[in-house]
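Could someone model flavin mononucleotide with this protein?
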Amino acid sequence: MSQLADFQNEIYLNGLADVLPGLPADLTRLEGLAQAKLSDTSFGYLAGSAGSEATARANRDAFDRWRIVPRMLRDVAERDLSVTVLGTPMPAPVLLAPIGVQSILHPDGELATARAAAATGLTMILSTAASCAMEDVAAANDAAADDAEGGGAEAGGGGARWYQLYWPKDRDLAVSFLERAKAAGYTALVVTVDTFTLAWRPRDLDRAYLPFLRGIGVANYFSDPVFQRAVGGPVTGENRQAALLHWVGQFGNPSLTWDDLAFLREHWDGPIALKGIQHPDDARRAVDTGTDGVIVSNHGGRQVDGAVASLDALPAVADAVGGQISVLFDSGVRTGADVAKALALGAEAVLLGRPYAFGLALDGEAGVRHVVRCVLAELELTLALSGHRTVSELSLDLLVRA
Ligand SMILES: Cc1cc2nc3c(=O)[nH]c(=O)nc-3n(C[C@H](O)[C@H](O)[C@H](O)COP(=O)(O)O)c2cc1C
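Reply:
Sure, complex below.
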């Protein structure tokens, strides 16, 4: 029996003692609040997208063009939203998307996200571009899972976490990342294929702001033995400039092709998902190359301005490969109702992106927890109030074009 919606009762009961939630329950309000709190550079990096930001707007518009048609009198007293995705049990089909450089949002950065994920039982996907080393994030994730009474500890026997790879040019460095991730308990590999080079991002360009060049978001590189060998040893004041330049040379990898994926398969024995797929032919290619999943995503509109809304790309990809491999989705998800729409359109699970990062900016670990609990509670209520007990009952029947 799902208890995700109990958050609603908790809030009302706290109200009897005059305790109000610290953050709004309408998560679409978080962006404005985060803007008021963050520096211009940090907020610009978080909220900004590519070019004129048309794709970021399209991501939202696509959700608004689908409307839910609730069904009545179907006994939804017993609800269970739990699923298993790529071998990972989850209390609901929601994961935390890989978001890099989280220390520009809150001093605890990814450690706070890892704790909040474990406390709520969700799987976090850690970015290669994190501001904390993957081993430290894993330790924070496990410690919080041990502390949690239910959720994370029960769901995964420790924190549930996946690792997102930005495939560096040096193959030895790539292998080192994979070996470290495996050793630190990351169970699935997410390979982001849409960001082999950074796109044209005006908000960052106008402020000439790229956190990596300031040494933020490079922790996984600087802590890596292969990277360190290449820059003459551990990164100190002396070789820091050389290390940053080496990062510049390593980050982008525009010559990658489908054939290269075999190399990753050789060095990673767990599930692999490709993130950034939009075309059904690319999804079919993913199946052919033995990939276990695709994540339909346009990186929150941060890569190709003018690109198709991710939600509009989802049904064709799900039609092409759903059932053969896992189809996950992100870009534009802001509420529990949005999650329900993406599930109905064929996603097996959904990645939550900017909303939890706004929560992190506003209140660290507690802020992320608040956002996650709101999304999960609203998701369960949306399913129940529209006549569904489980995620597998959802289908296109739920929706109508506005
Ligand atoms: C500030 C920021 C940093 C991100 N960093 C990464 C990253 O390091 N790796 C990655 O695969 N995706 C990254 N993403 C993309 C997210 O994983 C996800 O695809 C995106 O946030 C979804 O769009 P939405 O947040 O608008 O829903 C980042 C997104 C944002 C907003």
